[in-house]
Amino acid sequence: MNHAQELQSREGVATVVYTKPNCVQCTQTFRMLDRDDVHYLKVDITEDPTARDFITRDVADGGLGYLQAPVVFVSAVEGDAHWSGFRPDLIEANITKRADAA
User: Fold this and answer.
1) How many whole angstroms separate alpha carbon 96 and alpha carbon 1?
2) CATH, residue 80
3) Is residue 101 within 8 Å of 44, Cβ to Cβ?
4) Over its length of 102 residues, how does the chain's per-residue pLDDT go in tens digits?
5) What HEC string does the chain produce?
6) Which structural domain, as residue segments, surrounds residue 41?
7) Model's pTM, two decimal places?
């Protein structure tokens, strides 16, 4: 179980957003999720070194391999999805317009 999956299990959410202060793309991501009433967990990587390590560590070593915030991690029946940056297309495809989200 990875960092995001542990948080999802404990907090009862399907979406975790790894963020940092003063991040414009993070703010845009939050606005879109809030607009669509998506329940998500926000994790500040400047305050949580384990979270920062998880999103930046190489994929071969069990991390996600990203260097840019936000990082969005979504668990779904058909499998996990994750991406970096403000991606309205991926938010819609994996969260707000997903077939099992209704």
Assistant:
1) 25
2) 3.40.30.10
3) no
4) 899 999 998 888 899 999 999 999 999 999 999 999 999 999 999 999 999 999 999 999 999 999 999 999 998 777 899 999 999 999 999 987 765 554
5) CCHHHHHHHHHCCCEEEEECCCCHHHHHHHHHHHHCCCCEEEEECCCCHHHHHHHHCCHHHCCCCCCCCCEEEECCCCCCEEEECCCHHHHHHHHHCCHHHC
6) 3-101
7) 0.91
